[in-house]
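Dear colleague,

Following up on Tuesday's group meeting, I ran the structure prediction for the two-component complex that the binding team flagged. I've pasted the input sequences exactly as they went in, so you can double-check that nothing got truncated or mislabelled along the way. The structure tokens for the whole assembly follow below. Feel free to forward this to whoever is handling the docking comparison.

Inputs:
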Amino acid sequence: MIDYFVSVLTLISIFAIVVLALNVRWGWAGEFDFFVYGLLALGAYVYAVITLPPAPKNDPGLIYMLGLSQPFPVGVLGAMTVTGLVSLIVGAVALRNLRQVFFGIMTFSSVLIMAAVISQETPIFNGYNGVFGLAQPFNDLLQLSDEQYSFFFLGLCLVSLFLIYLLLERIFWSPYGLVLRAIREDEVAAAAFGKSPYTARLKAYVLGGVIAGLSGALLVSYLTAFNTDAWTPQETVLIFACIIIGGTANGRGAILGSFIVFGLILEGTRFLPPIPGHPDAPSAVRAIAIAVVMLVFLRWRPQGILPERHLKDGEPGQPSAPLRALWSRLRVARGR
Amino acid sequence: MPALLDVIDLHKSFGGVQAVTGMAFTVEAGSVTGLIGPNGAGKSTVIETVTGFLKPDRGTVRFANRDIQGLTPHHISALGLTRTFQLPREWPSLTVLENMLVAAIDGKRDKLWRAVFTPGPLARAQKDDLARAREVLDSFGLLGLRNDLAKTLSGGQKRLLEFARLVIARPRMVLLDEPMAGVNPTMRARIQESIERLVHHGMTVLLVEHNLDIVEALCDTVVVMALGQCIATGSMQELRLNPVVVDAYLGSDAVITAAVDG
């Protein structure tokens, strides 16, 4: 049972990273982006071919590019760089004139094109069969047992998630984050105040892409294999569901949403009693549950459980509310 | 006084419609210049083309001795030429205070790399902005609303917020596109005060407005537009006696009023 929880928690923290990536694009910048899951896949592939040894010369069932036998950090950096660059290309085209549903169509088509190319053009990432046989990161140094290693890897994922969360919090509250949200609200008015909507959006798009690449690298090093079956349009819906339920433009909300969708709903439905003669029932129930919860939130609480946070300001000339609270607590402590 | 904005032979058409045909005018630094004319004269198109929201077909726009025609709106605004819109365009799901901070952020601070690597200086600058934002909001009577989302403000409050944003952004020149449109008489006085306050802060103003009393009260020079061209320039008093202007825009009542006043 503990293995099960560790594995679920590991996957949730990996998916939470890609949810945070989509939150940058969708929550902060307001882009209806479908490309993010394609980037997770691309990051996974790129990480794989950087860390795997060269493909065997005489095996037609296993061909892929590169095969550099590099360690985990190099693979992660490579994955993040490639997903960042691909985001730059897609974003530079899509963000110029397309908005909302048109932007969605463009990015969705980009994923389909990428999936078609990767599955048909075998020499890139071994086509439909995908890449497999990846080593566990750092375990050649650590020499841990499988059970110990699963805890180590969970720790690695949680630390990554936490660092990404902190980084994004810093950016969210920065002038850049504020300007980006203003552009989301009204880009024409933002341009009238000297802010470049295109540049700010493109930066957010690349930032989201880089983070999605990290989650892809973590996912493939956890699964040790990856192929085209692993990324379907359904996964994209799940990532959107995390944000809609957890809270739009709120990093904590995105993480909470990941726990609810991937933990409570997806895993929780596994424990439903089986219906005799209907072996597909649990997966159908899962899909229906996600859809119903999403609809309920969109109708009655579109901002999600944890809504977007705002800069709160206390009385003029006074310290802000949290500082004031701290101050009064100090005074109590000093016995006044 | 030197010209801050110089528009020369500006042309803009939409398909077969010639909206602006050879418009030319200047705005002197530190002045309040009015731009009036009948509906469809091309006033809004002039504002849109001067501020880069529309690309002119041909013509020159010089701002502070620099050709700016064809530049993007954000680039022109960063040079110090900002505009408002006929309907106030706040950032609705940001708070009033955040609206002010966005306007206060200059082009050097809103960089992504700075957010990641130099949060300290940014936080200090933000603190200064906050103090200034509170001060300006207080002077516009909006301080109590600073933590409310901008979309919850009334129409008049949104107008005031727009002026407050201009005061904190401190452009060299603002183009006000019908700031009195759809505003009740009490609010009209407050907006007139707000425009005076922009002038007090050293901004040059180009005011597009149909309310001629306000134009007369505020503007040193008035440019009259009809059919995409400038047909006259002068003080409001001179224009009331100009037969071309009377014919195109003011109507004969204006002559009578001017004669009685005179």
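Residues 93-152 of chain B form one domain.

Cheers,
M.
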